[in-house]
Amino acid sequence: MTFASANAVEMVDAPANPKDVAAFLPRLSAALMGDAPLLPLPAAAPERERLRDAGNRCFVPTGVALVVPTSGSTGIPRLALLSAAALLASADRTHEVLGGRGHWLLALPTTHIAGLQVLVRSLRAGLEPVVVDTAGGFNAADFSAAVESMDIASSEQPHYTALVPTQLQRLLDDGAGVEALWQLDAVLVGGAAAPDDLLSRASAAGINVISTYGMTETCAGCVYDGVPLPDVNLDIAADGRIRVAGPMLFDGYAVGDDSLTDGWFTTSDLGRLDDGVLHVQGRADNVIVSGGVNVPAEAVERVLLGIASVTGAVVVGVPDSEWGERVVAVVTAGVAIELSEVRSWCLDAIPHEWLPREVLTLEAIPMLPSGKPDRTAVRHIAAKLAR
Which terminus has fewer CB within 10 Å in the chain: N or C? Predict the structure, then answer.
């Protein structure tokens, strides 16, 4: 990719605590106003060094404010170029839908777009965010203390946060966490598909939880509870993949730009539209071909998460001489899960051909820094442990 006018990227440490966020905000504000684009770097190597190397070779067009790696849930992350106009369009339309500019609580890493967009929204609102220090991991006590410090009872503006499903689960399992969530005007949940029962639990507790769909390339969530944000257009491609158009689209990747066509971005997610409401069915690259049948892994995962003892689930395909790929369910649960139990549970919810042929119970599912399952690592584990 070549540009008539290009700028070098300024690499900065991604802020992870309140002091660092306070120091980072003026630099982010300057980038949004036209200064050098920022590439926030994680603390951990080797990802830090890999991104630093890519940043040293990266020149981007004028107008780009942030260079952000995609989550890389199934492959090597790419650097997405996010313009100031796109970032602000996303922030403004989010505030429009939520009910106005408000005070944000940051509980997500700022190495990825979801956390960075909380900071952009805060700048747009003119209110410094309250920050949960997650350097040592996320816990309900720190989140609750952060909400308490917002002094919501005496504030006039709305109060918001954004979480991944795992964080919401931990907070709902904690009495003080539920109380903290209840005080917020809106809780955005994204980054991965949230199980229906988790969203139902939150709603039953009186929490205004909003399920979001989006990605780095759309400057975070662009569809809320299935409904696109204002000025966002959706379409379904012939192969079933979701297409997005709107003012918050990225400017392409630092290397390669074949995903943008006539103002539309074709995602790697499968979906359908019912009267304008989007239903996401999983990633196109998370389809397992078993015995000649396409098995959408995430559709199977959603059913598995309905089993009472299952707290996490990733479905992968492993090489098989008979089936080509064998469907393997990798779960976390309080007790080992038997294959017969899984197949019996799933039988009425999904086609017989989609049923797992093996179940592995782990203490924990490998996760990426973005909060999504590390499917590559899970696939390696399943290939090693599967019979």
Answer: C
Which among 223, 244, 215, 258 has a CA at the least distance from the CA of 94?
Answer: 223
Q: List domains and CATH numbers for the chain.
A: 6-281 (3.40.50.12780), 291-385 (3.30.300.30)
DSSP string, 345-383: HHTTTS-GGGS-SEEEEES---B-TTSSB-HHHHHHHHH
pTM: 0.80
Residue reference for tokens 């966490």: 177
Amino acid at 219: C
Answer for the pair 134, 16: CB distance below 8 angstroms, yes or no.
yes
Question: In 3D, which of 76, 34, 28, 89 has the Cα closest to residue 255?
Answer: 76
Residue partners of 291: CB distance under 8 A and separation at least 6 = 322, 323, 324, 353
Token representation of residue 367: 């996760």
Q: What is the mean pLDDT of the chain?
A: 90
